[in-house]
Amino acid sequence: MHHRPFHAHRRLVVRAGGLALAFPSLLVHRPARAASLSPTPAQAEGPFYPRTLPADRDADLTRVAGRSDGARGTRLYLAGRVTDVAGRPLAGIAVELWQCDSFGRYHHAGDEGRPRDDNFQGFGTSVTDGAGRYAFKTIRPVPYGGRPPHLHFRLARSAGPLLTTQLYVQGEASATDTVIAAAPAGTLGRLSIRLAAAPGREPGALEAQYDFILRMPAG
């Protein structure tokens, strides 16, 4: 698979840090465990990773630079940490998130024929801080084309990609989904997020937490 170069921008770090401060309740520090942790399962990238990265690709997908209106859909605050298998936080990891809009359409070449929400960014990046924390503001994923609601992720550093996977809404995906069916048993449970009400946010807003665990290459 051809991988695209990763560029860490200071603006992305600053914006991601601002989101983390905006909902610190999701970012509870966990002490490192002595035992080795199981790496987060990988999944297919899917067909709609951007061929060209958008100009606005910060960690808030509900707003597009230069547009006055926000995205359609229920707001979702997603946060967590990135660690290695020893539980040590990993700083400077670019966590890339992309997903379809509320119409079920991706904002990238090849996904045509349906209405599109031009106020939804569709792709964003949050760079982990010194404690390994990342944070996004996006919309609750919706089903499309027979697939359950899901979010696409790629984690990378300057040397290249480390993990590509998908996260699912707990209780809204099953082993009959084609992507999940191709994965080892137990994968769905490890890639599910539980949505909960986000008090103090927009009416109806949700929050979720997920920690990525990476087996880092030697060297």
Characterise the protein shown here.
The longest helix has 13 residues, at 10-22. This protein is mainly beta and 219 residues long. The chain has helices at 10-22, 178-181, 187-190, and strands spanning 75-84, 94-98, 123-127, 133-139, 150-157, 160-169, 192-193, 196-197, 206-209, 212-214. The protein contains three helices and ten strands, in the order αββββββααββββ. Helix content is 10%, strand content 26%. The strands form two sheets. Strands 1, 4, 8, 9 and 10 form a five-stranded mixed β-sheet that branches. A five-stranded mixed β-sheet has the order 3-2-5-6-7.
Could you name the CATH topology? Answer: Protocatechuate 3,4-Dioxygenase, subunit A
Order of helices and strands: HEEEEEEHHEEEE
Kindly estimate the percentage of residues that lie in beta strands according to DSSP. 25-35%
Taking the sheet with the most strands, its summary is: 5 strands, mixed
Number of strands: 10
Helix count?
3
Features:
single chain; 5-stranded mixed beta sheet; mainly beta; 3 helices; 219 residues; 10 strands
Summarize the structure.
The chain has 219 residues and is mostly beta strands. The protein has helices at 10-22, 178-181, 187-190; strands at 75-84, 94-98, 123-127, 133-139, 150-157, 160-169, 192-193, 196-197, 206-209, 212-214.
